Amino acid sequence: MKHYRLSFLLLIMIILFLQQFGYSQISNPTTEWSLWMGSHYTGLQDYTLKVAEFDRGVEGFVPELRLDWFRYSKTGNLRFKGYYYDPKRMNFSFAGQYTPWVKASARYQSFYRQNQRDLLANLSAREATDRTGAQPGGKMLTSEQLNPEMGVGFRRQEIQTNLEIRLPGMENIKIFASHRSIFEKGQEEHIQIMHCATCHLTSRVVDLERNTHAVTGGVEADLGKIQLSYKASYRTFSSNVEPFEAFFDTAQHPVNGTLVEEFSSRNIFSGESVPMNQYPETQKLSHTLKAKGKLGKGSFLAQFVNFSAENTVDLIDPNITVSGNLKLKGNYGNLRLNYPLFKKSNFVLRGYYGRFENDPINIDVPPWREGRPAGDLDIFDWTRYSNFTRTELKGSGEFIYQPSRKYRLNLLAGIETRERDDYPFEGAKDKTTTLQIKGGIKYRPTEKFTGRLSLLYKNIDNPFAPYKHMFERPGYAGADSLVPENGAPAIYYYQRDALRYGDITSLPAQETGVQLKLSFMPQKTVNFTVGLNASMAANSDEPELDFKKTSLQPLLGLNLIPSDKFAFYSSYSYLLQTQNGIAAVAMMDG
Amino acid sequence: MHYGSLYTETDYEVKSHILNGTLSYQLMPSVALNVQGTFSKSSASFDPVEMPQTPLRTLAEEKIHLANYDYSTIHSYSDLDYQFLNLRLGLTYAISKIVGWDLVIDYYDLTDNQGYVYGVESGTFYVIRTGFSIYRSGK
Fold it and tell me: Range of A181's domain?
């Protein structure tokens, strides 16, 4: 609530500043305004959470109001725009400028979003003890809506203020500051998934109150041939809703309720209330340096960004310890050079380097089968390494040649590498390298015809793929056969991790694409367009899947403007996408 | 008892038609008509899963006595089939140089022929809006 008030205070201060400053500095002004007053009726029929997702979902009449007020002269201007649609949707903005010293604006925007609720209807099944399905067995999956009558959705309000100042005698230097707050308040759906001993899912409606605040400040200097700027940004995210406690089912035999100690010892939660739906509280700080200017006959643009972010909330669950002072940090930079190699040509060189480090998370969970025979195994503690810890490099060169207005050619060649330090395991340095070539031509022999054609080819070495996840080897006999570990009474499911294989992905290793667009204008009143976008992608890296994906999209457009009283615009597109994939089924009876 | 994974390839297909149109007509010097429409029809589906009869499948289905593995409906679990229609009719009347009146009707209709996570999402939503506007300008 404190941040909420502060944001509104900033909004009012900017408006008062603009109002006072603008009225005193704008001389001999002209004022224009328009006012719209009316009403709208909203009608809803059947299920409207999807079709009216961004409506507040209330039938009936609501008054509606729109005002645009503009006061201007040669020395500056002031503008107020306001739109009230309904109690949850409205926007107001106030902006002013006193040339060239001060420029400021304030904006408020509100809308509502209705969300749909997962019915969990497809999450209900029970094994049968005969092949006809007539006799129910023990293993089952059940689901439950705890608040089926309640809807979910939230109102989003945003306040934004901006201020730019130039000091007398230092017109080449601009100081700027801005602020942005986003408040989201309403209800959301939370789905609780009980452990596999009961396979019970529950859905409940919980309060939602998320706040994001960002402040930015910086300076820009125009030094003639070069412009420099520095910007610092600080952003926070938090939730005002406390985690709630929900009961986890007691782990037991699903039909006769026995074996509680054994089943419970295999789960982290059993027969206890657990805090859940905890939001992170994040803070992010970034610094941006930018430079642009002339370089001989060409120009350049360079940018460097340093950022760090952290979550300051510790997990409150007593069963799990997440240790470490966790941070995400990174540095990245871009460089773009434009240089005309010869007359009517341009060469664009682009470069990028980025290094990101996301601290690994150490997770300490209770021992497996605590207090049971051959139990107390501390085998599920693990370190979750992030594949966001990576180094990225990108480089490309593009040659553009336009000898006349009739045609233009461009050719681009580029390379991109992404090396993930700890994927799929610590120190593995999984690397994806992408090479691409892109070419295009625009041909316009007369005003009656314009043709554009572009072609793309990409070769991706080692596209990102889940690691050893898709399939399991049988494991019941031979070299793969599993046996109980450490004197345990049975083979447990976690042991089957050793049998998993298959790095299947739907990301391509080769990709080709073509885009064609032809526009005809036989008369000035008629315009006809035909086009085609097509692409084909493939990946044969894994023996289990010869992946192929195709996309075909023809386009048609017809515009008629026979007179200044009549205009007709139309377009049609058809999209056909095909791809293959794997259907995998685990053969198991428990 | 576990007997590992059975797998096979299947194809997935997405089809989508999108039609847009806008018509503007100045009926009289003071009356303008505007009609806009968008219609889309989209569907997505898998081909039926035809699991090959491998020795592993035969063994697993024999050993897992009570299982009745049926692959014939797996492909339909995530079928999608939507139609969406949006129509807008707008009429403006300039009563004088500074006063105008307008009427706008927005109509949205979604037809869901499959129903999935959220159930059948078919529904209709419309907004009828009318009001007067005033324009002023001066020193």
Answer: 1-241+273-279
Reading the block at residue A546, the tokens are 């010869």
Residues in Cβ contact with A497 at an 8 Å cutoff, skipping those fewer than 6 apart: none
Residue B19 included in any domain: yes
| Structural domain contains residue B139 | no
Question: What ipTM does the predicted assembly reach?
Answer: 0.94
The average pLDDT across A368-376 equals 89
Confidence at residue B67, expressed as pLDDT on a 0 to 100 scale:
64
Please report whether residue B6 resides in a domain: no
CB A43, CB B117: distance < 8 Å: no
User: What is d(CA A551, CA A574) in angstroms, rounded to the nearest whole number?
Assistant: 10
Per-residue pLDDT tens digits for A85-95: 999 999 999 99
- Using a CB-CB cut-off of 8 Å, the residues of chain B touching A50 are 110, 112, 118, 121, 123
- The 10s digit of each residue's pLDDT in A529-544 is 999 999 999 999 999 9
Contacts of A44 in chain B (CB under 8 A): 123-125
> Where does the pLDDT of residue A480 fall: very low under 50, low under 70, confident under 90, or very high at 90 and above?
confident
> Does residue A581 sit at the B interface (CB-CB below 8 Å)?
yes
Domain count, chain B: 1
Residue B125 in contact with partner chain A when CB distance is under 8 A = yes
Please, which pLDDT band fits residue A235 given cuts at 50, 70 and 90? very high
| Residues forming a β-bridge with A217 | A177, A232
Q: For residue A10, is pLDDT > 80?
A: no
Local structure of A48: helix, strand or coil = coil
Q: pLDDT digits over A510-532, tens only?
A: 999 999 999 999 999 999 999 99
- Its domain, for residue B68, covers 12-134
**A183 within domain boundaries:** yes
* Residue A320 to residue A433: CA distance in whole angstroms: 38
Q: How confident is the model at residue B77 (pLDDT cuts 50, 70, 90)?
A: confident
In sign, the C-alpha dihedral spanning A454, A459, A462, A466 is positive
Could you tell me how far CA A40 lies from the centroid of its own chain? 34
Q: What is the structure's pLDDT at A464?
A: 96
Has residue A456 got a pLDDT over 90?
A: yes
Which secondary structure element, helix H or strand E, spans residue A11, and what is its range? helix A2-25
- Kindly report the number of other CB atoms within 10 A of residue A146's CB atom: 12
- How many domains are contained in chain A? 2
Write the burial class of residue A131 (CB in 10 Å: 0-12 exposed, 13-18 middle, 19+ buried). exposed
Q: Write the pLDDT tens digit of every residue in B27-51.
A: 999 999 999 999 999 999 999 999 9
Do the domain assignments include residue A207?
A: yes
> Does residue B2 belong to any structural domain of this protein?
no
Residue A309 inside a domain? The answer is no
Among A46, A570, A578, which would you mutate to test the B interface (most chain B Cβ atoms within 10 Å of its Cβ)? A46
Distance CA A80, CA A92 (A): 7
d(CA B105, CA B93): 15
Single-letter code of the amino acid located at A70? F
Pick from B72, B12, B62: nearest CA to A585: B72
Q: Is residue A420 situated within a structural domain?
A: no
A587 interfaces chain B, CB cutoff of 8 Å: yes
For residues B75 and A581, give the distance between their C-alpha atoms in angstroms, rounded to a whole number. 12
Distance CA A343, CA A135 (A): 84
